[in-house]
Amino acid sequence: MEKEQNKKTRLTHDQILNLYKAGHEAIVSLVEYLQDEVDQLSTRIHALEVQRNTNSRNSSKPPSSDGLKKPPRQTRKVSGKKPGGQKGHTGSTLKMVETPDTIIEHPVHTCTHCGASLVESPRVDYRRRQVFDIPPVSVEVTEHRSEVKRCSCCGELSEGVFPQEVTHASQYGPRLKAISLYLKNYSLLPYERTAELFNDLFGTPISVGTLTSINREGGTRVEEVGRRIKKALRGEHVTHFDETGMRVCGKLTWLHVASSRKLTSYHVDPKRGGDAMDAMGILPSFTGTAVHDGWKSYFAYDGCTHSLCNAHHIRELTCMHEEYGQGWAKRMIAFLLEIKTRRDTSDEKTFRAEEREAFENRYRSIVQEGLQANPPPEPPKEKRRGRVKKSKPRNLLERLRDHERATLAFMHDFSVPFDNNQGERDIRMMKVQQKVSGTFRSDEGARYFCALRSYISTARKQGLNVMSALQDIFTDKKLLPHLSPVDS
User: Fold this and answer.
1) How far apart are CA 211 and CA 420, in angstroms?
2) Which of 173, 283, 353, 390 is the most buried (most CB within 10 A)?
3) What is the C-alpha to C-alpha distance for residues 92 and 349, in angstroms, rounded to an integer?
4) Are 415 and 182 in contact (CB under 8 A)?
């Protein structure tokens, strides 16, 4: 198709000769037209080259998109030390215990030197070796029996009371259910492989339908603690926000995360913008510092302070320097890292006012240098609908100019991080879930997964044992009791 189009637009020898005979004005018009065509093609070629050369190091692409030829990541300085344990390192090894569970004795019957019998010889000493292993695991069945007695006075029958959690003639216990949730929602195994593991490891066949029911029960039981996690996040001084696409019922859906060092909350929604953030229920009443990657919907919430992820900025600036030859971008990278190093090594809780002012002036100077080198595009000769498209360097510079305070938030408040790594780490495992187990087949399954993953991530951050925390879901224990209740 492209070859046919090129043939249609290509001038023949006679057409070019006719233009020549028409005079210099016709030749000038032809050259101007060809120059415009060359400029457009050059711009398109450069855009394609930039697209080809972008990767996780100089853009927001995930590392998984780099393919097999991943570029080397020089993110840390060379130490000059050899790999492995260093000189003077004490190391650690598996230590023997004083009271082993099982002792197996290996007698010696003959002398290994002369062959004499040692059966009647007294033992002099032992040589000990210990093997640490897991015994065969099998499901233990506990039968509850409720006594039935007839009263000698009235002749009526009375029965003993079963424990509250024992409600069926036969059922799975809290530990088995907790293992199921652990494998599905923490280890991210698909239902089929989880069923295989139960059969192979425990010798207990369990159906996919039963695993689905256990997951549904667990997701329902943690909904209340999920509301308390959101309430606690609304009261945090710094909360990280991020979002990523995922497939639910074959449709593009958005997974939103809000997290801090001690809390995590996930929300799945068909929308990416403000409607989804409102439905999540954290940002509308959040008054702390929201750390994010600059998605425009976040800035609609003016009740909080905003902080932009400078790891994103550095990747974009790297692309501007390497692919667009922007010298100011390299200076901005060095400048941002200089402030970070100065902050991280400072003994003070904040910069002095004059030091902050000096950093701000340098920041504005670099941005202004970039704006002068990348002027806004000229208006088109022909009137067109919509805005004139700006170059990528210009778009980045305008963002840095318009959101200076959010870019330098880590400089003004030392409790605000330099980047949004917390939010990205919390959302990364959800992408792993999609790679391992595929998409979600129902909205309900995605919602329960988010609820359980919020609980698991928060429990892990709180220093709790995940298996114990999951087992608590199926008992009468209060889940994460230190989190304040939600107002009714």
Assistant:
1) 35
2) 283
3) 38
4) no
The single residue listed with the structure tokens 């003016």 is 302
What residues are paired with 246 via a beta bridge? 253
Say how far apart CA 316 and CA 410 lie, in whole Å: 19
Token pair of 215, please?
């997951």
CATH code that applies to domain 220-308+421-472: 3.30.420
346: DSSP letter: -
Global pTM exceeds 0.90: no
In the chain, domain spans: 220-308+421-472, 310-375+390-412
pLDDT lower than 50: segments of the chain: 1-7, 488
Helices 353-373 & 327-344 angle (0-180, nearest 10): 160
Beta-strand (E) ranges in 60-156? 148-150
Give the CA distances from residue 376 to residues 105, 309, 447, in Å, rounded to whole numbers and listed in that order: 85, 25, 45
Q: Which residues of 58-73 are buried (b: 16+ CB within 10 A; e: fewer)?
A: bbeeeeeeeeeeeeee
Strands 148-150 and 289-292: unpaired
The CA radius of gyration of the chain, in Å to the nearest whole number, is 33
The CA distance from 220 to 213, in Å, is 11
pLDDT at 357: 96
pLDDT of residue 106: 94
Residue type, 449: F
Select from 435, 396, 385 the least CA-distant residue to 50: 396
Q: What are phi and psi of 394, to 5 degrees?
A: -65, -45
Task: Give the model's pLDDT for residue 182.
Answer: 96
Helix and strand totals (H; E) in the chain: 17, 7
Q: pLDDT tens across 364-382, in order?
A: 999 999 999 999 887 766 6
3-state helix, strand, coil in the chain (%, to 5): 50, 10, 45
